[in-house]
């Protein structure tokens, strides 16, 4: 575990312990406001420290993932489904690009028969074909 995560974890553990202590102090309140005020001030200071350390982690979690987990879904299954959807969308885009390339080639062939000089002028403007491989 990285040092940043370790210090954040320690700060979070401290805050959680203080919550338990505050619960005990409030439930067994003996009338001494100074003790309670001191505990609350320390709790506020540690919460501010925790908030400052939070920015160091900077982990962005997609809202859809959080929603899926909240609804009882498995994060691994969610991630696999996202990749599958992205792969399908990629294949669809690839198919469209290939269809467009085929259409362009067909159109150029037709132009070569009907308008040979214009087709040659157009071909001269095109960049050289890319080598596959």
From TrEMBL:
Keywords: Activator, Nucleus, Transcription, Transcription regulation
Chief location bin: nucleus
Keyword Nucleus (UniProt): yes
Keyword Nucleus on entry: yes
The organism's place on the tree of life at top rank: Eukaryota
Localization per record: Nucleus
Subunit details: Component of the Mediator complex.
Family: Belongs to the Mediator complex subunit 10 family.
Function as written in the Swiss-Prot or TrEMBL entry: Component of the Mediator complex, a coactivator involved in the regulated transcription of nearly all RNA polymerase II-dependent genes. Mediator functions as a bridge to convey information from gene-specific regulatory proteins to the basal RNA polymerase II transcription machinery. Mediator is recruited to promoters by direct interactions with regulatory proteins and serves as a scaffold for the assembly of a functional preinitiation complex with RNA polymerase II and the general transcription factors.
Protein name, entry field: Mediator of RNA polymerase II transcription subunit 10
The species this protein was found in: Coccomyxa viridis
Gene name, Swiss-Prot/TrEMBL: g13215
């Amino acid at each position: 575990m990285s040092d940043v995560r370790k210090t954040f974890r320690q700060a979070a553990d401290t805050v959680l312990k203080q919550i338990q202590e505050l619960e005990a102090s409030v439930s067994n309140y003996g009338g001494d406001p100074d003790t309670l005020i001191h505990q609350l001030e320390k709790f506020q200071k540690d919460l501010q420290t925790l908030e400052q350390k939070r920015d160091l982690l900077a982990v962005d979690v997609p809202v859809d993932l959080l929603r899926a987990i909240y609804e009882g879904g498995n994060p691994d299954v969610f991630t696999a489904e996202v990749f599958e959807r992205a792969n399908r969308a990629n294949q669809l885009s690839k198919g469209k690009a290939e269809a467009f390339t085929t259409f362009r080639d067909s159109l150029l062939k037709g132009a070569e028969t009907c308008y040979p000089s214009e087709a040659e002028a157009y071909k001269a403007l095109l960049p050289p074909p890319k080598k596959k491989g």
